[in-house]
Amino acid sequence: MDIDGKTAIVTGAASGLGAATARALAKSGARVAVLDRDAGKGEGVAEEIGGAFFACDVADAKGAERAVAAAVDALGVPYVLVNCAGIGTAGRIVGREGPMALDAFEKVISVNLVGSFNMMRLVADRMQGVEPGADGQRGVIISTASVAAFEGQIGQAAYAASKGGIVSLTLPAAREFARFGVRVLAIAPGLFSTPLLEGLPEEVQASLGAAIPHPARLGRPEEFAQMVLAMIANDYLNGEVVRLDGALRMQPK
Q1: What tens digit of pLDDT does each residue of 57-110 get?
Q2: Which residue among 4, 25, 38, 123 sits deepest, i.e. has the most Cβ atoms within 10 Å of its Cβ?
Q3: CATH superfamily assigned to domain 7-190+224-239
């Protein structure tokens, strides 16, 4: 699919992987809707790329519905959705102070998995009505999983479960949406230089990077964005989860 002149929605687009993706899509000619809870940073990204910002909590059904409707009114029906919104809360299932608080687990599942599903259902519904292109293409939906979905470490139970849900959601959604020409994919990034990791001491970041086989460094958000563009461009890629991790395989801890 050629994204030039088409509308794309990116969640979690105020920073990190989402911001890099929004920039790459805009550079490729897309009209980009920047969705995030952080209005200050989100508006800054939107202004930088000539897009539009819409405040959105992806896990809130009515709020996300309003944000999608506003984006459609302002920019047109989207041909692309990239789900980058997410949180990562570490904690053992049973720690020194007892079992993990259930609401802590529920929050990660709600934002990462339910939020991705929420945006998928709302945007796919809109995509049904767009003019089909080559091969009957009407849209592409890309969600962000993680290598933790496959090799979750100790303390990552909630995060790994949420990302594993995204992995498992990808194929059935692709099969369902095939009837109206919408492809569904996911990227499972490894260790990337995002605000979460950038807050760690430099020696810790260097140690993490050294554990990656090749190239021995943290991934760059721009490399995630490049994968998004490649997925959009390749009309035959569907129902797949692509690891983007420099051949990293996470150890238990």
Answers
A1: 999 999 999 999 999 999 999 999 999 999 988 899 999 999 999 999 999 999
A2: 25
A3: NAD(P)-binding Rossmann-like Domain (3.40.50.720)
**Domain edges within the chain:** 7-190+224-239
C-alpha of 170 from chain center: 12
Find the helix packing angle between 16-27 and 39-49, rounded to 10°: 20
pLDDT greater than 80 at residue 178: yes
> What is the number of residues in the chain?
253
User: Which of the residues 159, 177, 192, 224 is marked catalytic?
Assistant: 159
Give the distance from CA 144 to its chain's centroid.
Answer: 3
Positive/negative CA dihedral, 214, 215, 221, 226:
negative
User: Residue 13 carries which DSSP code?
Assistant: T
**How many whole angstroms separate alpha carbon 158 and alpha carbon 142?**
21
Q: pLDDT by residue (tens digit) across 216-236? A: 999 999 999 999 999 999 999
Among candidate residues 229, 225, 245, 249, the one with its CA nearest the CA of residue 237 = 229
- Annotated active-site residue 159? The verdict is yes
- 17 by Cβ neighbours in 10 Å (0-12 / 13-18 / 19+) ranks as buried
Residue 200 has pLDDT above 70, yes or no: no
